[in-house]
Design a protein that fits this description.
Length: about 350
C-alpha cells in the first residue's frame, strides 16, 4: 500500500492500493467518532459496489444511510444539495457522524460541500471510484456544486479526514470514463514534466499505481503550499478555464475529461502562438493527447468560449489568471485581460500547424 500524508488546515492520509474497499472499516475506524455514516453516491457506483461498503459497515454496528443521485454532472446541483442536507437533518445525523463521498468527481464535490456545511462541518471520507476523482477531485478539499450560470460556482475549501483510493474499482470503469481521468493525468504530466510525462507514452492502466501515486504527490505538494488557491494552486487549473467554458456551452454534454483535453491543446496553442513555448513543446502535447485518442477540436467559436469564460469563477473583474506553458514541466500564471484573452484564443484557433 502507498500512503500520502497531506499537511494542510487538516492533516490526513491518502491510502492507495488494490482491493481495499472490502477491508475499509479497518482503515476508517480510527477516525470515526459517531456511529452513523451517511454515504453519498451515484446509481452506477451503488449498483456495482454499494453493498460491499454498506454491508461491512452494518456488520460493525454502524447505522448507515445512503443518498443515491443519478450519475452525471447534472446531479451536482443545488436541489440535490438542499435535499441531502434536509435528509441528513431528518435522519438525525450529528456533528460527530461522518459523510462518505463514494464515487467520481460529482458525488465527491457534492458530498464534500454537504460535509463542509452540514452543522458547519462534519467529518468527510472520500472514496474515489474514477481515475479523475483519484488523481484530482478527492484530494485537496475543493468542494462545490454547479449553478445555472456555471460550474462550481458555490462551494467551500474543506479537506477530507481520509481518502481511500482502491485502484481495483477502476477496472470496471467504462473506457470513456477512464479516458476522462487520463486528461487530468496528462495535465499533471505537462505541469510536472518527467518522469510522469514520458511514462504516459505507455497506457496508464499498465502503471496505474505509480501514476496515481505520483499525481497525488504533485497535487499534495501544491495544496500544502497554497490550500486556498491564492497563487500556485492555480497551476492545477491548466486547461480548465477553457474546459469549463466548453462544458458550460455544451450544457455539460461534453465530459470534463474531453473538455480538459480540448482546453489543454488550446492553451498549448495559445502558449506557442504567444511565444511562451516552442513548436516542439506544442507537438509533444499534441502527440500525447493523440495517444489517448482525444478529440481536441474546441467545437465552439472563440467569441463564445470567451464569453463563457467571463462566467467562470476564476475571473477577477475584467482579468483572468491564465495558466500558460513554457515547457513540459514549467507552467506560469499570467494575468490576462478578457479582451487580450479573446484575441489570444482567436490567434490560437486560426493557427494551422
Ligand atoms: N482541481 C484543481 C484543484 O484542486 O485545485
Amino acid at each position: 500500500m502507498k500512503k500520502v500524508v497531506v499537511k494542510s488546515s487538516k492533516k490526513y492520509e491518502i491510502l492507495i492500493d488494490r482491493d481495499i474497499l472490502s477491508k475499509i472499516y479497518g482503515y476508517i475506524n480510527p477516525i470515526l467518532k459517531g456511529n452513523h455514516i451517511y454515504i453519498i453516491t451515484d446509481d452506477i457506483v451503488d449498483r456495482l459496489y454499494g453493498s460491499v461498503l454498506t454491508s461491512q459497515l452494518k456488520n460493525e454496528n454502524i447505522i448507515v444511510y445512503k443518498y443515491i443521485i443519478p450519475n452525471g454532472e447534472k446531479s451536482k446541483n443545488s436541489d440535490n444539495y438542499i435535499a441531502i442536507l434536509n435528509d441528513m437533518a431528518v435522519k438525525g445525523i450529528s456533528r460527530t457522524d461522518s459523510v462518505i463521498a463514494f464515487g467520481g468527481g460529482v458525488p465527491g464535490d457534492l458530498a464534500g460541500f454537504v460535509a463542509a456545511t452540514y452543522q458547519r462541518g462534519i467529518s468527510l471520507i472520500q472514496i474515489p471510484t474514477t481515475l479523475l476523482a483519484a488523481v484530482d477531485s478527492s484530494v485537496g478539499g475543493k468542494t462545490a456544486i454547479d449553478l445555472k450560470q456555471g460550474k462550481n460556482l458555490a462551494g467551500a475549501f474543506y479537506q477530507p479526514d481520509m481518502v481511500i483510493c482502491d485502484l481495483s474499482l477502476m477496472n470496471t470503469l467504462p473506457d470513456d470514463v477512464f479516458k476522462d481521468g487520463c486528461a487530468e493525468v496528462i495535465k499533471y504530466g505537462i505541469l510536472a514534466g518527467n518522469p510522469i510525462f514520458d511514462q504516459l507514452k505507455n497506457p496508464i492502466k499498465k502503471n496505474i499505481e505509480s501514476i496515481v501515486y505520483r499525481c497525488i504527490k504533485i497535487k499534495r505538494d501544491i495544496v500544502q503550499k497554497d490550500e486556498k488557491d491564492k497563487n500556485i494552486r492555480q497551476l492545477l487549473n491548466l486547461g480548465h478555464t477553457i474546459a469549463h467554458a466548453i462544458e458550460l456551452l455544451s450544457g455539460y454534454t461534453v465530459s470534463h475529461g474531453e473538455a480538459v483535453a480540448k482546453g489543454l491543446l488550446l492553451i498549448a496553442k495559445i502558449s506557442y502562438t504567444q511565444g511562451f513555448c516552442s513548436k516542439a513543446v506544442l507537438d509533444r502535447i499534441t502527440d500525447i493527447l493523440d495517444v489517448y485518442g482525444f478529440d481536441t477540436d474546441p467545437i465552439y467559436k472563440e467569441k463564445d468560449i470567451a464569453s463563457a469564460i467571463i462566467m467562470d469563477k476564476k475571473r477577477n473583474n475584467e482579468y483572468i489568471n491564465l495558466i500558460l506553458i513554457e515547457d513540459i514541466g514549467k507552467c506560469v500564471i499570467k494575468k490576462t485581460s478578457m479582451s487580450d484573452l479573446n484575441n489570444m484564443i482567436q490567434k490560437a484557433m486560426d493557427y494551422r500547424g
